[in-house]
Amino acid sequence: MHAASRRALEGPPEPNHVSLPRIWARGESVAQRPTRIRSGARKFSPKRVRSLAFALLALLTLPAVPQASGSPAAPQQPPTFHVKVRLVNVFVNITDPSGYPIGGLTQDDFALTEDGVPQKISYFERQTDMPLSLVLAIDTSGSVRKDLDIEVHAAHDFLHALLRPNDRLDLIDFNSSVREVVPFTADMHHLDWGLDNLDMGPATALYDAIYLASQNLASRSGRKVLVIISDGGNTVKGVDYTQALDQAIRDEVMVYSLIDLPILNDAGRDTGGEHALITLSQETGGKYYYAEFGDISKAFRKISEDLRTQYLIGYYPAQRRSQTDFRRIQVTLNSNGHQSHNGYTLRYRPGYYATPSPPLDQ
User: End-to-end alpha-carbon separation of the chain, Å?
Assistant: First the structure.
């Protein structure tokens, strides 16, 4: 039995129950409240208590002294409101018509809007060195078993070429269920061991794997990437496609899909599953690649190149009037008299979820 335990899909965690201090109800007698007795407390005689009570009553019944008309009242300060605005990071890949990455652009070459409103770029970086958190999810179901050895060999080479000391990778396999083989680490020996000890199973919990991988990445900082190897079939009832996509977008995960084609004949392919993986990658700012007969080495090299040539654009969004939770991002290139920008393709996540803001006064 493998050392790593099988992870089962669970529903949302129950909210934490916090014990609040008791608030006494109006009209409740003092005798009903618990009394704390402190040793060494000073004792008062009944006569002393009555004297103090009369003195307090006299003070409370004194008429209020009107404020002199010559001394103006101090002006009231308007309330101060603090709005916390987070920096939104957008990773952008640019390719020419032949698919080659474009480098060397500057901040002035870019323009960005959120829900159609121009935004000021506050941070810009070429070929970002921001740490990478990556989940590699490998389909080990029966439909792709014949290509697994080739995929594992290519994955070994991919990890050794891509990961830097400050990057972390989480390895999972999925078949009838989802299993975390190796948690986030930069230890290549541990990752190599994990790739050589994948579990097999008959069915395919593809959407469960995407959902759980996104949750694993949610709390990570830096770039969050999911690389998933599968033929696109989902044969386990649980999380559906919409839930998997929503979770990936909410957790700001870029999904790269390596679509394994065990058979080229359309009659034997799950074209619906392939289309789902393609859309998932496009909607999260990632990319998809076809791997015919398990040959995914070329696709791995393209992903590695993709992650090394990303532009990082950061901005602080203004508060908006809409109550909707999704904010749509659009990145464009300024012409600046450069005709060379024509035909370039920009790839980035199309938006993000944020806490709804109250509508502003007109």
Answer: 64
Helix axes 148-162, 188-195, angle to 10 degrees: 170
Q: Please classify residue 277 by burial: count the beta carbons closer than 10 Å to its beta carbon, then call 0-12 exposed, 13-18 middle and 19+ buried.
A: buried
Q: pLDDT, tens digit, for every residue of 186-203? A: 999 999 999 999 999 999
Q: Where are the alpha helices (DSSP H) in 187-330?
A: 188-195, 206-218, 241-250, 271-283, 297-308
Q: Report d(CA 59, CA 84) in Å as an integer.
A: 46
DSSP letter at 197 equals: T
pLDDT at 188: 96
Stated pTM of the model = 0.73
* Tokens 């009659």 belong to residue: 267
pLDDT of residue 32 exceeding 60: no
In whole angstroms, give the CA distance from residue 311 to residue 335.
18
Domain 129-304 -> CATH class = alpha beta
Q: Where in the chain is the domain with CATH 3.40.50.410?
A: 129-304
Query: Which residues does residue 169 pair with via DSSP β-bridges, in sequence order?
Result: 134, 185
352 Cβ contact partners less than 8 Å away, ≥ 6 residues apart: 88, 249, 252, 326, 327, 329
Report how far apart, in Å, the C-alpha atoms of 137 and of each of 30, 215, 243, 316 are.
Answer: 63, 13, 18, 33
Q: HSE (CB half, 13 Å, CA atoms) of 94?
A: 21
pLDDT digits over 47-70, tens only?
554 565 555 555 555 555 455 555
Give the DSSP per-residue string, 133-185.
Answer: EEEEEEE-SGGGGGGHHHHHHHHHHHHHHH--TT-EEEEEEESSSEEEEEEEE
